[in-house]
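Progress note, sequence design subtask.
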């Protein structure tokens, strides 16, 4: 779609994702009648708000609920405004984690049309459902930053005028005709994830209308073990467990250096991708590792097949993430852009070893700590607490954790069949 102003062609625009950082607030509008109504009532030239949670990835609340979407696919039609806002006082790493964790935890929550309508009014009690500006304002409020007077009922125009935010300049660029044709014809793969999530939640809501987000499914299942069969079936029929295959096939160049070398993308583009991936990794809080640890704990306390499947899924996703990091690191090392670095091995049963293990497998960490306490010695087997025991390095390390173990001879013989290791 294109328009003309004074005889000059006006082209659609897109956001320059290279200028947008984690935690930034993206404001947009569309030509839709509802958007026009919101703009007229609020007196602002925008009608929608979202938060950046990753490279080209934002989370927002729309008619199909709270979901992630690809910012690079968001096309602003001629005449439609777009802004990127950033806190005047930069967020600390802890605050940034809090903002992103809040919106990720809300994924799947249903849209509140009533709440959106009431956002320009006052005196109402907020419910659990979400709409775009509420999601943004509540996420920042959770991190201790008040963007607006009332985070439960606010509209995008209030975010645009917030004294706590500053506009990031020059974040929009025009699409040329070839880019526009390609972008409009390409498949929105993130939509597939949104659809899968909504199918899963739709099945869960047949059991309880109180379920809003994916996290609510976990809480419900803790209290209702009899729901396990239904929810396991929902996981499978929704394709939620299989979407990683699509990602692996679609972006195979991100997982293998040889494929990346031959991938049809500029040297500059591939280098920028690798550098941004490693920079994001330094922020920590890998959500796949965190989710894996969370489900390990849940499954230990409340054994459910649903939780076991989630453990398998996040172990796989964490391994894929490690492979992307390894590929990006090797790409940059070959070009002398980063110094080669080896993974630090932690001595079993040291404080650092336990801290690392808790991040990946809190159940195993607790069992080993209990064994040490009973035995009154650190020199026991990490698995069965027998003595004597020796230290080993796993040759195929997990996506996270220390990568070392202290094992007795019997446990070494059993574990080394499926997990090759060598003496540390």
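Output:
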């Amino acid at each position: 779609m294109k328009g003309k102003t004074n005889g000059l062609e006006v082209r659609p625009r897109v956001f320059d994702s290279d200028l947008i950082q984690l935690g930034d607030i993206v404001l947009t509008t569309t030509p839709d009648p509802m958007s026009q109504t919101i703009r007229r009532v609020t007196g602002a030239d925008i009608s929608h708000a979202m938060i950046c949670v990753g490279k080209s990835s934002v989370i927002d609340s729309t008619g199909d609920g709270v979901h992630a979407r690809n910012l690079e696919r968001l096309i602003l039609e001629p005449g439609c405004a777009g802004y990127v806002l950033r806190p005047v006082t930069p967020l600390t790493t802890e605050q940034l984690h809090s903002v992103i964790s809040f919106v990720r935890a809300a994924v799947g929550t249903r849209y509140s049309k009533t709440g959106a309508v009431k956002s320009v009014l006052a005196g109402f009690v907020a419910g659990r459902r979400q709409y775009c500006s509420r999601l943004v304002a509540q996420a920042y409020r959770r991190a201790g930053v008040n963007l607006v007077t009332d985070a439960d009922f606010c509209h995008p125009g209030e975010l645009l005028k917030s004294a706590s935010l500053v506009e990031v300049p020059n974040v929009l660029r025009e699409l040329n005709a070839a880019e526009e044709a390609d972008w409009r014809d390409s498949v929105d793969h993130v939509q597939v994830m949104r659809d899968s999530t909504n199918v899963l939640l739709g099945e869960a809501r047949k059991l309880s209308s109180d379920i809003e987000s994916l996290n609510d499914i976990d809480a419900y299942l803790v209290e209702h073990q009899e729901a396990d069969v239904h929810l396991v079936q929902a996981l499978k029929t929704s394709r939620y467990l299989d979407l990683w295959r699509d990602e692996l096939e679609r972006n195979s160049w991100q997982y293998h250096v040889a494929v990346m070398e031959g991938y049809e993308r500029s040297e500059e583009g591939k280098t920028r991708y690798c550098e941004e991936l490693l920079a994001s990794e330094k922020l920590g809080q890998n959500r796949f590792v965190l989710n894996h640890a969370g489900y390990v704990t849940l499954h230990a306390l409340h054994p459910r097949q649903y939780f076991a499947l989630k453990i398998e899924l996040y172990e796989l996703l964490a391994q894929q993430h490690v492979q992307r990091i390894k590929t990006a690191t090797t790409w940059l090392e070959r070009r002398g852009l980063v110094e080669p670095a080896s993974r630090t091995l932690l001595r079993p049963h040291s404080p650092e070893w336990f801290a690392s293990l808790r991040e990946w497998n809190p159940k195993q960490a607790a069992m080993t700590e209990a064994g040490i306490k009973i035995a009154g010695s650190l020199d026991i087997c990490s698995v069965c607490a027998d003595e004597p025991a020796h230290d080993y390095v796993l040759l195929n390390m997990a996506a996270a954790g220390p990568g070392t173990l202290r094992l007795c001879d019997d446990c070494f013989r059993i574990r080394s069949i499926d997990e090759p290791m060598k003496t540390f």
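The chain has 17 helices and 14 strands. Work on this subtask will continue into the next period as scheduled.
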